[in-house]
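User: I need a structural model of Nitrite reductase (NO-forming) from Natronospira proteinivora for a docking pre-check later this week. Nothing fancy, just the predicted structure tokens so I can convert them on my end. Input:
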Amino acid sequence: MQARQLLLTAASMTLALSLAPLTLTADERLKHDGEFMVDGMIFGMPEARVFEEDYDGPPVVGETMTALPHLAPLTHEGNKTHEVRLDTFAQKIEVANGKTFNAWTFGGTVPGPTLHVREGDRVVFTMKNRSDEMVSVTEPVPGGSPFFSQLNENNYLKTEPAVSPMPHSMDFHSGTVAADDKWRTIPPGQSIEFEWVANYPGVFMYHCGTPSVLMHTAMGQYGAVVVSPKEGYDTDDQVDREYVIVQSEYYLRKHGDEYRYDHTAAMNRNPSQVVFNGHVNALNSEPLRANAGERVRLYLMNAGPNDTSSFHVIGAIFDRVWYEGNRENEWRGMQTVLLGASNSAVVEFIVPEEGSYKLVDHEFADAERGAAGTLIAGPRRQ
Ligand SMILES: [Cu+2]
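Assistant: Understood. Predicted structure tokens for Nitrite reductase (NO-forming):
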């Protein structure tokens, strides 16, 4: 340890501190027997652990787990290990004014919390299948994450505990592992723990992978992981605001006073609502905010499960687009970004003037079903 500190001190005298993040040697980054490196990336995770635990604590744990459209700031340089818990459980949620259904959720909302890590970070993930418990998420929880206080602040999403015992699983697109092991299905009352390394930067989907995957995702089990590139994006020091937007579809049909999932509608790709951040009013009753002249960055994820998104901001042009959030995939000057189901992008635009800007899926049938939001721009600040 001392030798390494000396080495680092020596290095910092010869290199500017703002250069590449701290680089550890391969030996220091490999944690378990069986792990190996290819092209600087770590593969060969240990087998997942399935167990029973007497746990009724916060269902979301992790300091970089946030509620949409927030993204947690990262204060570390690189190669950090994040201990993250995201339990799965049923919740009665609202998708439009007065339209509620008993959703299957990660963390109690649809979409679930956004996890933010840096390329090269390791995630030690725990999930308890609590679909047979009444879990409440309406109050901030001691030991929870920023997710709960952010959730408590929004005025559109109303959640109530519900029970719907079902087997579930977790599939992180940001993880490179054997899916039959890590993404395996867990019955109610059991927990799973596994690790993955964020080998690739980008904006990634996570979802339940238990059959019918269409049904489990349409029932609400999805969210986003943002893996910021080690080197950052070239505009990092120019960005004034950043927000996460997840687009998705609901397939609901009225049964008496309540709404239920309609598998035929899902198979026929005929959504009842298409939404940003889980609710028709999420980005209308609480518009995004910026000022004229500011650079706004959006982390976009189209969770689907079926439809494409043609994302557009009326009155703005995307100055930078990094498709899938990888800095190698840079486009300039785009009017619309086309995202298939599970595709993503990081987009930036300059807010041209004070005013109100509509965010839409330019496939207008979907905008009319709810995939619309607003960015309110204040006057230019000098
Ligand atoms: Cu599921």
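Before docking, keep this in mind: DSSP finds eight helices and 28 strands in the chain.
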